[in-house]
Amino acid sequence: MTRLLLTILLLTVLPAQAQDHLTVSPDGPMQSVAEALAQVAPGGTVVIEAGVYQEPPLVIDKPMTLQGQGDVILDGQSEHQILTITADSVTVRGLTFRNVGVSFIEDRAAVKVDDASHCLIENNHFVDTFFGIYLARTANCRVVGNELYASGETETKSGNGIHLWYCKNITVADNYITGHRDGIYFEFVEDSRVAGNLSERNLRYGLHFMFSDRCQYHDNTFQYNDAGVAVMYTEHVEMYRNRFAHNWGSAAYGLLLKDIIDSHIEGNVFEQNTIGMYAEGSNRVVIQDNTFRENGWAVKIMANALDNEFTRNSFVANTFDVATNSRQSYSTFDGNYWDKYQGYDLDRDGVGDVPFRPVRLFALLVEQNEPSLLLLRSMFVDLLDAAERVLPVLTPETLVDTQPAMHPPMQP
Question: 363 to each of 38, 297, 298, 299, how far by Cα in Å?
Fold first, then answer.
């Protein structure tokens, strides 16, 4: 009898033994996600079966996999952050996170990874989550194949879709982001890659990054965002084969470059933006093999942008091809295709025999007095353009393309 009583006592006092695999379901023996996360062994797996789970804030503090099976919804009830990850080597896959409440004193997120590495956030859905995926002080993580939907009405009441702060070696790939303040946001991020994402109809920028050196952005689409894409205060940026489209507004850009240094922008398409590319304080940037099509201004390049090279780009059906704010410029154009070029190629080498001056006199007037844009289709502007072709005295010499291509270097 004494031995039996001792056994019963030990069973009631000792914690349950950690298990490698646990299943959570609304009708099963394990119905609490929080309880399963506490009981699973390091390196184990928690599978959540279909259902709606309204749990307190969840924390993963050990290496493990959290996997959804079927239509699994983790609901924050618009009151709190849903999941915080503080351990290395955590995978979160196949879940729907919804209803993270707006907060003006903390960056609440559906999934926040804090001071961890080697995480994988894959194939999840996020609906009205304020911040969707938030990585802080993380390294060697992947954010892949997620869909993030928000319905914020103002920037102040909205968070970013995928937000990175002080991170290294992160891959953000094949995600869909819409309705957030910024679709993808990088600050103090290094050696990371953004590829194959569609970021559209966000309240501010489709992509916004600052102080994020040696990062690559390729094969993404950024479209219908209120302010387009902004890249600032960064060195060694590489942007390849992206599409910047339909970003219209008084302060909207396909791509805004602010204090970007020693970078490369190649093979991108800038289509139907108020300003295709705007460069200010950006130095030693190579812009080549891009297509600028049907923009208000294809390129606005300020006088404080130094030693930038525009080569083999195509300028097609833009209202203004190039605009600047000064008679002096320190960037160069060489071997680009201009659909407004009216020169000739007598030796048939594919290069125009006379230079092309892409800065219209009227563009300079609009730069100094924007309301004059109302005269764009007037005979007065036609006369200005004709006078500029005869007496080209206002275009900075460095902005003259001395070897204009007779045919597009790439198909627009």
Answer: 65, 9, 12, 11
Do 61 and 146 share a domain, yes or no? yes
Last residue of a domain, one of 224, 256, 289: 224
Residue 332, token pair as written in the block: 């160069």
Q: Do the strands 275-280 and 243-245 form a parallel or antiparallel pair, or are they unpaired?
A: unpaired
Angle between helices 379-390 and 361-368 (to 10 degrees): 120
For residue 75, give every residue at least 6 positions away whose Cβ sits within 8 Å of its Cβ, in sequence order, or none: 52, 53, 54, 98, 99
Q: How many domains does the chain have?
A: 2
pLDDT tens digit sequence for 55-107? 999 999 999 999 999 999 999 998 899 999 999 999 999 999 999 978 777 88
Whole domain around residue 97: which residue ranges?
43-224
112: CB partners within 8 A, 6+ apart: 81, 83, 84, 85, 131, 134, 135, 136
Q: Is the pLDDT confidence value at 386 over 80?
A: no
Q: Is the pLDDT of residue 43 over 80?
A: yes
DSSP string for residues in 311-368: ES-EEES-SEEEE-SSS--EEEEES-EETT-----TT-SSB-SS-B--B-HHHHHHHH
Distance CA 386, CA 270 (A): 28
| Cβ proximity of 372 and 366 under 8 Å | yes
Q: Who contacts 15 (Cβ-Cβ below 8 Å, separation ≥6)?
A: none
CB 20 within 8 A of CB 40: yes
Cβ atoms of 210 and 186 within 8 Å: the answer is yes
